[in-house]
Amino acid sequence: MAGTLIAAFGGFASFNVTLSAMPAYAVRSGAGPSGAGVLTATLMAATLVVQPFTPRLFARLGRRYSLALSGVLLALPCLLLPAATTMSTLAGLVAVRGLGFGIFVVAGVTFTAELFPPGRRGRAIGWYGAVVGVAGVLGAPLGIALARQEAYGLAFALAAGTAALVAAGSFGLRRGTEPSHRAGPRSGRSWTLRGTWRSLRPMTGPLFVEVASTTAYGVVFTFLPLTASAAPEALLAAQASTVLARLGAGWLIDRYGGRRVLVPAVVVTTLGTAAGAASHETALLLIGTALFGAGFGAVQSATLVLVMEAADDSPAGLGVAGVAWNVAFDGGTGVGSLAGGPLLSVGGPSLLFPATAAVLAVFLLVDFLTVRPRHSKNDDPAREA
After folding, report:
1. CA 340, CA 15: separation in Å to the nearest integer?
2. What are the pLDDT digits (tens) for 200-242?
3. Do residues 273 and 218 lie in contact, with contact meaning Cβ atoms separated by under 8 Å?
4. I need a labelling partner for 214 at 20 to 30 A (CA). Which of 31, 207, 276, 304 fits?
5. How confident is the model over 26-66, as pLDDT tens digits?
6. Cα-Cα-Cα-Cα dihedral of 191, 193, 198, 201, to 10°?
7. Rounded to 5 degrees, what angle do the CA atoms 11, 12, 13 make?
8. Would you state the torsion angle of the CA atoms of residues 256, 261, 264, 266, taken in this order, to the nearest 10 degrees?
């Protein structure tokens, strides 16, 4: 698992540096808040496009070379970003990074899940998530700080260097893990529309909650740097609490089941999202973003474990679950960053953050009313371990 964790740190450090630096870079280029959102949405759109094809890629190239390819696609565009000044050029480079990020994130969660049985999967995913969180603790505030100093060249160089760790970490994977014919269907012929829907249907509740939570994530991390002077400290608080929550949630999930962790985690995330409206109240903002990070980290672990459980632990099912969860994560992030710009322009932070929190609360209610009864017999994987 060491290679996966090294790659996870490098890829998400690179992602967070650019995610937090690009909004200001876009505004400086004359694109405005909406343009900043468009760049994040472009990244997520490219990520979404490539993710359904990742099982075939893993089967063709194997895990090592698939993960290495993702690192190259993440790193190389960063070297060209300082010379890009138009929105079309920026969007093109960001899209290439999105392709690499799409391969990278599916590989991380799928390979981690395959290494551990269900009774230990919560803790394994918790450790993976904690490393991701540490990368965010370091990357997000650093990206904002460098952007405020207009040190964009240094920010993009750091993003390229950390992305290179993905390629380095890929060769820490055991040779026995490739080629990865078990990770999913070998060709498009193996996936029929009806068969894919049958696989996805038991996952829909956790996936909807995942979309809503990452919509909030896209809003908070794209627009808080533009609305709050204490954004570096606030995002640091969010990332630090995410690390602790991912570790703690993993233990709780293995002991009590993902469903019992998910509901309170979403409630906490909702409260933390709404607190983003307090952009000029530093103490309240810091408390709110710490709550957001704690809830968000637990939601990520809980939804991923629930989705993996719904896949019935078959190799092909885990491949579908890994793709579906990452599509939900990246789709939600893209929606939040794209829709948040117009809302911010119309009503400012007092509209943007409470409206996002309301969406999250509605999706929790939908999940609670429609999915819980269907899964009530399987809520507690610890009983089966």
Report:
1. 19
2. 777 888 889 999 999 999 999 888 988 888 888 898 899 889 8
3. no
4. 31
5. 877 766 666 777 887 788 889 889 988 888 888 888 878 88
6. 120
7. 95
8. -170
Contact of 257 with 380, CB cutoff 8 Å: yes
Helix/strand/coil for 187: coil
* The model scores a pTM over 0.85: no
Q: For the chain, give the percent of residues with pLDDT over 70.
A: 83
Residue 220's contacts (CB-CB under 8 Å, 6 or more residues apart) are: 235, 238, 273, 276, 289, 292, 353
Those residues with Cβ within 8 angstroms of residue 240's Cβ, 6 or more apart along the chain or in another chain: 133, 137, 290, 293
Distance, CA of 64 to CA of 273 (rounded, Å): 38
Residue type, 119: G
Query: Following CA atoms 30, 49, 8, 62 in sequence, which dihedral angle do they give, to the nearest 10 degrees?
Result: -140
Q: What is the pLDDT of residue 180?
A: 41
User: Which is nearest to 96 in space by CA: 186, 191, 160?
Assistant: 160
Amino acid at 32: G
